[in-house]
Amino acid sequence: xxxxxxxxxxxxxxxxxxxxxxxxxxxxxxxxxxxxxxxxxxxxxxxxxxxxxxxxxxxxxxxxxxxxxxxxxxxxxxxxxxxxxxxxxxxxxxxxxxxxxxxxxxxxxxxxxxxxxxxxxxxxxxxxxxxxxxxxxxxxxxxxxxxxxxxxxxxxxxxxxxxxxxxxxxxxxxxxxxxxxxxxxxxxxxxxxxxxxxxxxxxxxxxxxxxxxxxxxxxxxxxxxxxxxxxxxxxxxxxxxxxxxxxxxxxxxxxxxxxxxxxxxxxxxxxxxxxxxxxxxxxxxxxxxxxxxxxxxxxxxxxxxxxxxxxxxxxxxxxxxxxxxxxxxxxxxxxxxxxxxxxxxxxxxxxxxxxxxxx
Length: 359
Known about the structure:
TIM Barrel; 12 helices; alpha/beta; eight-stranded parallel β-barrel
């Protein structure tokens, strides 16, 4: 509550002209803190922010896509793009974390400001444009990290300078250098902020991308890993879809998933719709937060129904309360991810979600 009453108003007030400053400040503070031993971080932050252990019994772990998750709540891609504070997220109670979206080529993203807050709607609009230091830089950083107690997902995207027809090779180059560190890869083909990217959700483009990356995964040599739980097993590939797809387009994605044995779906990315936003805005970008909740639930429910619950789903979009998390799981999600809800609710939000979903 202290975050919502004191810290959040202060941060929002000081960074109202460029909310990304608050994000950068948080990571600047957490990055050096995350160099401390994991056991110390867990003692320092776990008991204070999560006074009741939120994690399921070790005898009853969550197994999804062949991976073991200590809790069902993950940090969505986009918050810690370059993996600067990974040990801290584990100490905070996240059951997994997804870094990125990372591209093969380092790129600055779109001009700032590129994040916009709508507090009355509990929403954000972003047009970041896959700003990141590149796959090689991320691999170098991960190589220096000690083992993480939670699975690490890596979200892959297309470099802006890469033509659409060369996208499969662009993703593949990033996958190769990051494979030793990924518990799973998320294929981001649904961000609205990279020109042409969403066309990769079309059947022909998606099949070309998936077949290339499946071939890369199968060709990887078995190797000991501090990050991968099963070094001898293929790394799971998940596809992240847009909430703006029609049912027919979603069905085509699901057909590709079944045909090429994709491990799971992440539903959903941000939306181009402005429905549910309580103010008029001309800002371009993807909308997240409360206005996305209903549509994200619809997509998760549709995918679960069409696949008879056999395809694992990570539900994300509009989760701002424990009840939202319960609804997402009831709709068919095996795991959930948060981003905007974490921004608005603060660190203790993770404990609330974990406690609710544990029950």
